Amino acid sequence: MGLFDRLRGKKKTEKSTDSPRDYSGLRMEVFDADGAFLFLAVLLILGDGPPELRQLADGPDIPWEIGAEPFPAKLRGFDKNQNLAVHFEGIVSRVDEDALKIEQLRLVSKDNDRAFFRQATSAAGEVYFTGDPDAFAWICEIRNVSAGGVCVRLKEEDFQEGDELTLRARLTPTQDISELNCIVRRVTPKRGGVFEYGCQFIDLTPADQDQISRAIMEMQQYQVRRSMGR
Predict the structure, then answer these.
(1) Alpha-carbon distance 205 to 105, whole Å?
(2) Fewer Cβ within 10 Å of end Cβ, the chain: N or C?
(3) What is the Cα–Cα distance from 98 to 57, expressed in whole angstroms?
(4) CB half-sphere exposure, 88, CA atoms < 13 A
(5) Phi, psi of 105 (to 5 degrees)
(6) Would you say 203 and 130 are in contact if contact means Cβ atoms under 8 Å apart?
C-alpha cells in the first residue's frame, strides 16, 4: 500500500455500513481537514480500546506537534481484499510518541480510486534503460514521487511510453542511493524544450516500498516543521 492523492474532488461510492474494526491493521495515510498529507501509520482497533494510529516500524518519527492538540483528520487506506480505497474521518490526538488515538472514527466511503499521494520534490537523479546499468545514463530532476510512481524531468526526448527504466537517486539526504525500476506511462513536453516522464514503479520489493514511504514522510515532516518555524 502506498501513499495516495489528497482527498479532494473524488467521486465516491455510497456510504458503507462496514465497521472500522474490519480495517484494523490497514496502513492509512493521514491528512488534515484541508487535505494536506501529514503522515503514514497503521490503524489498530484492539479489544475495547479506542482506535489508534501507530507509527510504522522503522519509519521516521511522527512530529510530536502533530496531535498535541486534537484536530479533525481524514484517513485513507487501500483494502486489497475488496480492491477498494477506504475513507475515514475522526478526531486525532496524541497518546504517546508512537501512537495517536482517534475519536468519533467513522467510515465515510469506499471507491475505486487507486491514485497515490504525490510529494513534490526537486531531487536530482539519473535514469538508464533497465538491465543495462553500464550504458549511458541521463541526468534528471525528480519532480514528484509517490508510492506508485515518479515524475522525472529531462532536457531530452529520448524515451517513449512503455520504456522500462531504472531510476538511481537519493530521495532524501538521510537515505542511501536507491535503484528503482519503472515503466514510462506518459510523456509531456514542457516549456523550454524539456520533457516530463510520468513513470509507474514496477517490481518493487517490500524494502523498496518502505524506503519510498519513509522518504515521502521525511519530506512532509520537513515541510511541517518549516511551516511551524522549527
Answers:
(1) 32
(2) C
(3) 10
(4) 29
(5) -70, 130
(6) no
Distance, in Å, from the CA atom of 100 to the CA atom of 226, rounded to the nearest integer, reads 22
Distance CA 146, CA 4 (A): 8
Nearest CA to 44 out of 31, 55, 58 is that of 55
Does the pLDDT at position 140 exceed 80?
A: yes
C-alpha cell at 194: 524539456
Query: φ and ψ at 24, to 5 degrees?
Result: -60, 135
Number of H helices, E strands in the chain: 1, 13
**What are the cell numbers at 55?**
507509527
Pick the closest to residue 121 from 148, 155, 145, 154 (CA basis): 145
Residue range 109-121: mean pLDDT, rounded: 76
Note the pLDDT of residue 206. 77
Q: CA 66, CA 94: separation in Å to the nearest integer?
A: 7
- Alpha-helical segments (H) within the chain: 206-227
Q: What is the pLDDT of residues 162-203, one digit of tens each?
A: 999 999 998 887 887 889 999 999 999 999 889 999 999 998
Identify whether the C-beta of residue 224 lies closer than 8 Å to the C-beta of residue 32.
no
Neighbouring-strand partners of residue 52: 44, 101
Instruction: Give me 182's grid cell.
Output: 519503472
pLDDT of residue 211: 82
Round to whole Å and give the CA distance between 137 and 150. 17
- Percent of the chain at pLDDT > 70 equals 85
